[in-house]
């Protein structure tokens, strides 16, 4: 992850658009706790606040999962969180971190979904992109480390040119704006930031073959360093289209040479499913799959 305010990454907080410079500039950095910037959307009893609100623990047990969301929505920018995933036998659980327009038929959504596993198996992260209500763009990557042993940074960069999903400083997926090819791209609706921990053992692990072992409950995931840098909605209408926003800068229009090498390494060694290669679902390769990075 390049740039961004150290205060926001270290303490957790939201950065609103200021003078168009990276980090917001002009005193727009807000060092804030979870309670100031997020709201519980589901089962408050299963969310615990740690370290004076800078870290939250999500809990899944037989009675409920839980979730939270940002109080505001955003147009373009970058959102990241440090997450420590459910350890041990987490088969059947899903820990999610995503952006969502919270609209029905024309939903826009950018997903990280961490699929639980049986002990000793690699942790798989599924990404998906919904644009103007169309999804079915799943990709899965096996993580090359144990994401339950420590916190790692998961980031979504979203600008007019492309969307980049990153794990620490490794891009794992790039989704280009291919509207010129007739492919929908999320650029008309603001999106909120969401996280959930929930039961999905009908599909999450080996297609639903591996069920949750409730004797291992409760299942816990931890979040900290909430960093959102973008155009808050409601807010100045001109913000989202401002080419001076740092995330629209030349350095963020394409991957750097180092990022491109890391991206290729991930794609060659760790991708375990790509809808672009699934001929049973897509006999004709979707046009966006032909665009490269």
UniProtKB/TrEMBL annotation:
CDD domains cross-referenced by the UniProt entry? GH16_XET
Q: Name one Pfam family in it.
A: XET_C
Principal localization reads secreted
Listed A to Z, the keywords are: Apoplast, Cell wall, Cell wall biogenesis/degradation, Disulfide bond, Glycoprotein, Glycosidase, Glycosyltransferase, Hydrolase, Secreted, Transferase
Location in the cell: Secreted, Cell wall; Secreted, Extracellular space, Apoplast
Molecular function per GO:
xyloglucan:xyloglucosyl transferase activity
This protein's record includes keyword Glycosyltransferase = yes
Q: Say yes or no: keyword NAD present.
A: no
Q: Where is this region: Disordered?
A: 1-23
Assigned EC number: 2.4.1.207
- GH16 domain location is 9-223
Q: PROSITE patterns, alphabetically?
A: GH16_1, GH16_2
| Top-level taxon of the source organism | Eukaryota
Post-translational note: Contains at least one intrachain disulfide bond essential for its enzymatic activity.
Q: Which family does it belong to?
A: Belongs to the glycosyl hydrolase 16 family.
What PANTHER family does this protein's entry cite? XYLOGLUCAN ENDOTRANSGLUCOSYLASE/HYDROLASE PROTEIN 8-RELATED
* Function (record text): Catalyzes xyloglucan endohydrolysis (XEH) and/or endotransglycosylation (XET). Cleaves and religates xyloglucan polymers, an essential constituent of the primary cell wall, and thereby participates in cell wall construction of growing tissues.
Protein name as it appears in the record: Xyloglucan endotransglucosylase/hydrolase
Q: Which organism does this sequence originate in?
A: Stylosanthes scabra
Taxonomic path = Eukaryota, Viridiplantae, Streptophyta, Embryophyta, Tracheophyta
Which gene is this protein's source?
XTH6_2
